Amino acid sequence: MRFTFNVNIDNIWVVGHKGGTQMARARMRGQKTAYHHGDLRQALMDAAATLLDIRGRDALTLREAARRAGVSEAAPYRHFNNLDALLGAVAVESLDMLLEDVDAVGGAARKKRAYLDFARDFPGRYELMFSRLDDKASWDDRAHAVDQLAEMLESAGGLSALHGEASLILAGFDGF
């Protein structure tokens, strides 16, 4: 199933991993979630993920993530040394979401569909997961997740082929 979103970015706060991809998709359809002095790290990651998907990586700053999470501009530095550290954490969480989606379905065709649906539904996160980051702390977790993903997708055409197809779709070459 593919969703189309009509979204006013000023009314969206965060979309996150807690509860999995389906909950994240439901939140994209309008459910607001705000930081309430609970898990600041997760609130910042959720805000960053939402901004990535809606506005892209160039629009994401620590200041904007803090604003979206409803905290001070200095608050992100309690958990992230810099923007790359936040991006690395979001990339690892996004890879975990994709692994859950692919693992939840059986058969090569369904695994392929789950992979491509994730890329369509979360384009900013998808591009981030496979991009170069200066955050060395997340590298091992990202590499391990990509290895797992490659193994899971072997029967569905392989990670390289699906990544190429997803990249073409995100570039507007859908339907080839």
* Overall geometric form: elongated
Q: Distance between termini?
A: 19 Å
Number of strands: 0
What's the mean pLDDT score?
84
Which band does the percent of strand residues land in?
under 5%
Quickly give the structural class.
Answer: mainly alpha
The radius of gyration over CA amounts to: 16 Å
Q: How many domains, as an integer?
A: 2
Helix content: 55-70%
Largest sheet: none
Low-confidence stretches: 1-19, 29-33
Order of helices and strands: HHHHHHHH
Description of the molecule:
There is one protein chain. This protein has 176 residues and is an all-alpha fold. It folds into 2 domains: 9-78, no CATH class; 83-170, no CATH class. It contains 8 helices and no strands. α4 (83-103) runs antiparallel to α5, α4 (83-103) crosses α6 and α4 runs parallel beside α7. The longest helix is centred in the middle third of the chain and has 21 residues, at 83-103. The protein starts with 19 loop residues before the first helix and ends in a 6-residue tail after the last helix. Residues 1-19 and 29-33 have low confidence and may be disordered.
Entry keywords:
mainly alpha; 176 residues; 2 domains
Short description:
With 176 residues, the chain is mainly α. It is built from 8 helices and no strands. α4 runs antiparallel to α5 and α4 crosses α6.
Secondary-structure blueprint:
Layout: H1 20-28, H2 40-55, H3 62-69, H4 83-103, H5 108-121, H6 123-129, H7 139-152, H8 159-170
Helix pairs in contact: 2-3, 2-4, 2-6, 4-5, 4-6, 4-7, 5-6, 5-8
